[in-house]
Amino acid sequence: MKAQDKHALNRILTIIFALAAAASSTAGEVAAAASPWVEAPKAKARLLAGGDRAQGQGAVAFVEIALEPGWKTYWRTPGDAGGLPPSFDWSKSANLAEAKVAFPAPRRFTDRSGNTIGYKDGVVLPVFLTPQDPDAPISLVAAIHYGICKDVCIPVEAELTLDVPAAGHAAPAAEAEAARALDRVPRAQDALKPGDPILVRAEAHLDGTAPKITIEARFADGGAGADAFLEAPDGVFVPLPERVADLDGAGTAVFEAPLGADVDIAGLRGKPLTVTLVSETGASFATFIAE
């Protein structure tokens, strides 16, 4: 082989090896952005890395649950008809001080068994991570337990693992769906975005012969999908509110939750109750004391 031919061949090989190395590096970055899917009948789950938190504290990851069409999974409170809300065990993680799961705005589902609250076809749950050492990566291990339902209900378990880079280091950006999940997490009344529902009043009437909780809220753009959910601490049961008045000209709707014999009214008195308001344009929450 002539010297000039050998030189040309060496240049070609160098380019090929460089491209291969770049492809390998890119593949590694993609692999680091998400854990492998852990599959189960009718469902699968994985972890996604989401980069540094906007506040500069810790990082964001996401638990993605994907379901076969028509299946649903539950919000943190499953609703009157019962269900298995997702639970998380982070104890096998390394360099993790706290993992706080946030829930995007859910939907109400009504069938012959009653009302449930959750997500159809899947959900992406943001997780706010606080490392023990902010200069070191987090080895994230999530043992998750969740329920899925269609004609039957199935409990699902999965263990997911993902390495999350230290704060300030290059971290893969959240996928578009994960970014949308962050935007759908309900916001406090003092941090609302345009389109978020506004709480006008929330009152608990615990005395008398017809105790109830009344919620009045203002919704934007006609209030499509407008709904309200209630939660009490310490596992105290509160029923789902029902809309008792259509939206008026100002976009205000009224919801009521009658407190029947199945409600521990004494256990509610003096407790902070959380109302979550959702619509197609936004979501918000507020806390009030049942008095």
Number of helices: 3
| CATH superfamily annotation of the largest domain | Thiol:disulfide interchange protein DsbD, N-terminal domain
- Supply the helix-strand structural class: mainly beta
The largest pleated sheet is described as: 6 strands, antiparallel
Identify the CATH architecture of the largest domain.
Sandwich
Helix content: 10-25%
Overview in brief:
It contains 3 helices and 19 strands. The chain has 291 residues and is mainly beta.
Overview of this protein structure:
By secondary structure, the chain is mainly beta. It starts with a helix and ends with a strand. The relative contact order is 0.14. The chain folds into 2 domains: 35-184, Thiol:disulfide interchange protein DsbD, N-terminal domain (Immunoglobulin-like, Sandwich), CATH 2.60.40.1250; 189-289, Sandwich (Immunoglobulin-like), CATH 2.60.40.10. The protein is globular. The protein has helices at residues 3-33, 176-183, 265-268; strands spanning 38-40, 43-52, 59-67, 72-74, 87-89, 98-101, 107-111, 114-120, 122-130, 138-149, 153-164, 187-188, 198-205, 212-218, 227-231, 242-245, 252-258, 272-278, 283-289. Strands 4, 5, 7, 8, 10 and 11 form a 6-stranded antiparallel beta sheet that branches. It has a 5-stranded antiparallel beta sheet with strand order 1-2-3-9-6, covered by helices on one side. A 4-stranded mixed beta sheet has the order 12-19-18-15, with no helix packed on it. The protein is 15% helix and 43% strand. A hairpin with a 2-residue loop joins strand 1 (38-40) and strand 2.
